[in-house]
Amino acid sequence: MKKRTYSCGLDAAVDVVGGKWKALILWELHTGVRRFAELRRGIDGISEKMLIQQLREMETYGLVHREVHRQVPPKVEYSLTDFGRSLNEALIPLGDWGERHMSTIEAIPRD
Amino acid sequence: MKKRTYSCGLDAAVDVVGGKWKALILWELHTGVRRFAELRRGIDGISEKMLIQQLREMETYGLVHREVHRQVPPKVEYSLTDFGRSLNEALIPLGDWGERHMSTIEAIPRD
DNA sequence: CGGTATCCGCTTTGATACTG
DNA sequence: CAGTATCAAAGCGGATACCG
């Protein structure tokens, strides 16, 4: 989310879902409501800092809903909004593409 | 293209198409063959350095074909491979999503 | 025309420690 | 459990200058 104007829809979408983690978080939430710790365990390699940072951004974008249950121990649940679900659906073909070509992609030499 | 293993297809796809420019370049190439200068003019705000850098990466990924015509003045044409075209197709729903929600996205407060 | 090379700042990400 | 704070490292991307 860096720009204020976009040259096309794909430009806008990449800006929203861009970065290392957002698409993964979106995907992890597609099955339903998830607690903070569940998300952390579900997304390999993400730190607490990055997870909360990305979730907060996605909350301001209106993609994610954050529900705090005031109790001890604390319980915070994250879920997709309708907007988030619509984005997730738009990502399905891309996910399928990645699935189909994953072995090819992994075989590409890096540097 | 930073990882060597992926947790899911979406993870892999985002790694390939991630960054500020690749999706845009892909999209610009969807109409057919393009010369270097055409691409530069077609993608608003990109520098020569970033364009060539991204094109080279996409070439090593096998998404883009680079054809050099040895003549004066030089002429280099870029086009999508079948692999690149398949990725582009997978990006269409995302582009449509962005198109539909562009005004909403632009209205999201930054910072 | 179609690049390369170098430098540099800003943002993103990671590591570690701490808290209500 | 669900964060916050701080610092440091890495990487992305821009500006400028130059070349075959």
How would you characterize this protein structure?
Two copies of one chain form a homodimer. Chain A has helices spanning 9-17, 22-28, 36-42, 48-61, 82-107, and strands at residues 34-35, 64-69, 75-80. Chain A starts with 8 loop residues before the first helix and ends with a helix. The model of chain A has no long low-confidence stretch (mean pLDDT 95). Chain A has a single domain (11-106), classed as Orthogonal Bundle (Arc Repressor Mutant, subunit A), CATH 1.10.10. The radius of gyration of chain A is 15 Å and the shape is globular. Chain A is an alpha+beta fold and 111 residues long. In chain A, a hairpin with a 5-residue loop joins strand 2 and strand 3. Helices cover 57% and strands 13% of the residues of chain A. The structure holds a DNA duplex (20 and 20 nucleotides). Chains A, B: GO terms for molecular function: DNA binding. Chains A, B: It holds the Pfam family HxlR.
Sketch the major β-sheet of chain A. Answer: 3 strands, antiparallel
Q: Please state the average pLDDT score of chain A.
A: 95
**Count of extended strands of chain A:** 3
Give me the Rg of chain A, rounded: 15 Å
Order of helices and strands of chain A: HHEHHEEH
The interface involving the most residues is between: A-B, 50 and 50 residues
Query: What do we call the CATH homologous superfamily of chain A?
Result: Winged helix-like DNA-binding domain superfamily/Winged helix DNA-binding domain
Distance between the termini of chain A: 28 Å
Shape of chain A: globular
The helix content of chain A is 55-70%
Looking at the overall shape, the CATH architecture of chain A is Orthogonal Bundle
Protein name (chains A, B): Transcriptional regulator
InterPro entries (chains A, B): HTH_HxlR (IPR002577), WH-like_DNA-bd_sf (IPR036388), WH_DNA-bd_sf (IPR036390)
Pfam families (chains A, B): HxlR (PF01638)
GO molecular function (chains A, B): DNA binding
